[in-house]
Structures are given as C-alpha cells and as structure tokens.
Write a structure and sequence with these properties.
The chain is an alpha+beta fold. The protein contains 4 helices and 6 strands. The strands form 2 sheets. A 4-stranded antiparallel β-sheet has the order 3-4-5-6. The protein has a two-stranded antiparallel sheet with strand order 1-2. A hairpin with a 4-residue loop joins strand 3 and strand 4. It starts with a helix and ends in a 6-residue tail after the last strand.
Length: about 190
C-alpha cells in the first residue's frame, strides 16, 4: 500500500467535503433570504385596476385606492348617472350596474329605472359639469362639485350648483360603487 497516495486522496476528499459543505451553507442562506423577501412582500401587493379612461397615474393596494383613481372613477360614475338623456339613460344604466356593489345592485337598478321612466316621460336631459373633485383615500370616496343643467323639451329649466358624494368599496379584486348621493354644495365632507 502506498500511504502517501492514500494520504493525498484522503486530504483531497476532505477538501472536497469542505467545499460541498460551504456550497450547501450558501444554498441554505440564499433560501432563508428568499423566504424572508417573500414574507415581506406578502400583504403589500398592489393590484392595478384600470378605470374607463386614464388621465393620471394611480395605485391600488390591498383594499385602498389612490386619490387619483378615486377622482377618475368618481368622474366616470357621475358622467354615467348625471349626463343622461332619454336616448342614453338605458345603456348608461347597464354600464353603471356593472360597477355597483353586489348588495346595492337592486337599489341602484330600481332608482335608475325610475329616473329613466321620468326622463322619457317628460323628455328631459341632464348635463353635469364637474368643477371640483375632492378625494378621500381614508374614506375611499370622492366629493364632486359642479353645475347640473336640466333641459325639458330642449329648454333649460335649471342650472344649479350641486355636490355629490361617491363612495367605493373593494371586493372580488375590484372597486365597486357603494354610494352615490347628493350632499349640500358647501359641505366639507
């Protein structure tokens, strides 16, 4: 037996084992770092929801949306509800109902059907010109102030300043319309 050769091979095996041990430790450390990074990301995801038209950048995280998103969706909802005529109210109603919170669907549908019947009966149209949008990220709402113009048989009957509160909720990975109501114009809501 050649002891020098065996001793050299033994030292070579020890060196290889140390190298493999270092590689294994490196892999364990990288797995721990990856797990830590994943755990820090959980719960902080942002879902990108696209409003009908994009004028500003915005974000949606968890169950909250940025003020910019609330402004854009509030303006769109007010257009669907307040810029109507006998010929447009039916298709705008159908679009609006796709954005309404499920448990509010029946209430909004009934309200829109009554409004559609009234507009068709008196041949009226309304046009809303937003002047100010005030979003609240905490309340997930937006107050829209502007002028509501009403025309009956083509003749202007009113042109009054109005304010509306539009509230949103988050469910099923999308924003839903929860409330749309008129509020006092001077309200700081």
């Amino acid at each position: 037996m050649d002891f020098d050769r065996l001793n050299t091979e033994r030292k070579d095996l020890i060196r290889r084992n140390r190298m493999l041990s270092l590689i294994a430790c490196g892999l364990v450390i990288s797995q721990i770092l990856t797990l830590t990074a994943l755990l820090s990301v959980i719960g902080s995801e942002r879902t990108v929801l696209v409003p009908p038209s994009i004028n500003k950048t915005f974000w949606v995280a968890g169950q909250r949306a940025s003020g910019e998103y609330l402004e854009q969706m509030g303006a769109f909802i007010s257009w669907l509800m307040l810029d109507v005529s006998p010929s447009s109210i039916d298709w705008k109603k159908e679009i609006l109902l796709t954005y309404v919170e499920p448990d509010q669907h029946g209430q909004f549908k009934a309200k829109q059907e009554v409004e559609a019947d009234r507009l068709k009966r008196i041949n009226a149209a309304t046009a809303f010109a937003p002047e100010q949008l005030v979003p609240s990220e905490d309340g997930q709402s937006v107050v829209i102030r502007g002028r509501l113009r009403t025309l009956v048989n083509g003749m202007e009957t009113t042109n009054d300043p109005k304010a509306y509160l539009v509230e949103f909720s988050f469910g099923g990975s999308r924003m839903h319309l929860k409330t749309f109501k008129e509020i006092p114009y001077a309200s700081k809501h």
